[in-house]
Amino acid sequence: MIPSIDIKDYNYPLPDERIAKYPLAERDSSKLLVYRDGSVSDHVFTDLPSLLPEGSLMVFNDTKVVPARLHFRRESGAHIEIFCLQPDSPADYNVSFACTRTCDWKCVIGNAKRWKGDTLFLMNPSDDPAVGEMNLRAELLSREGQTGQVRFLWDDGSPFSRVLEVCGSIPIPPYLNRDTEKIDLERYQTLYAHIRGSVAAPTAGLHFTDRVLSGIDRRGIDRETVCLHVGAGTFLPVKEGDVARHPMHREPFTVSLTFLRDLLSGLGTRKLIAVGTTSVRTLESLYYVGVGIIEDGKPSDVAQWAPYEREYPYSTAEALGAIVSYLEENSLSELVIGTRIIIVPGFSFRLVDILVTNFHQPESTLILLVSAFVKGDWRTIYDHALQGSYRFLSYGDSSLLFRPL
Description:
Blueprint: E1 31-36, E2 39-44, H1 48-51, E3 57-61, E4 63-65, E5 69-73, E6 79-89, H2 93-98, E7 102-110, E8 120-122, H3 129-134, E9 137-144, E10 147-153, H4 160-167, H5 182-187, E11 195-198, H6 210-218, E12 222-228, E13 251-256, H7 257-265, E14 272-275, H8 277-296, H9 306-309, H10 316-329, E15 334-339, E16 354-358, H11 365-373, H12 378-387, E17 398-402
Parallel strand pairs: 1-17, 3-12, 3-14, 4-11, 14-16
Antiparallel strand pairs: 1-2, 5-6, 5-8, 6-7, 7-10, 8-9, 9-10, 12-13, 13-15, 16-17
Helix pairs in contact: 7-10, 8-10
């Protein structure tokens, strides 16, 4: 049954001065709030390895933020900002990034009403010769509200990934209320970012350094990666009073067969630690992918409300085993799928035991996820953080949450 939740119950006062506008000088010097068994304690992020159970499995999202924000002009002089969301033709990220002349993307279009369908030309205020040689243009193929299908064309034969690196900027969150700066090129990216595709960073990972990762290894904790490309929908507020009417965006994710085997073999014997809400959504989506294989013979995207629509008779081991068998039988080395899953109070967690995450916006789907994870006790955490001068949102401090039994 789809739960009825009033988003206003998940509001809290967040003064602008508590939003971290810039990262700290050292990634791992951030504060770390630890929540366990209903109580809260204060630490620093370098303490993290000593706070984790030995022999656990820790999962990171190794997606990489792309410089997806582009600034164009019409011949009339109007400024049009185009924010690339996901590839449309070709639809595969890697294939699209490899295109050398043209490709189509689904985009958010700033100042959309001013774009009448004429060809746009990239702004080049510093007369950068590399930008000039590319001669990047944009054509509007279709539009619905603030989003549309945009065709990009350029001249010098560079792959589109290089075009974005030269012509685009890192899309830092809108609530920072500032332009992208040089520091964001390095710090709005995790140390282990690997696979291009996100338009927002999995921010829980921004705190990790080689020092912290080495400490995790010494603790006997295995590290694995998944890849979920974070979409711009992560910034969208819940505008509907009833969360049941809020549409979740699709995000593609990839999980290797090797990791799935490892995950299956460790069920019930070791704690699973997710770094970030994106890792949680990926891991918890796996159960419903497995159910789809059991019932339909093939994997399919996870629907937003699938976890709440009915009771499922299958164990987690059965669901994961179905994915492993499907990949093996079809000679596939990884699962590539999408999810729209929304995790709200009442959700049954089947995999994740411990969560590392930042402090999220009021009335957001991420607050709902945190509340679900701590069985409704999110205000204990956030009240303590507000009273204790913690820094909030993407460049803010971190928390380590142990799911109550």
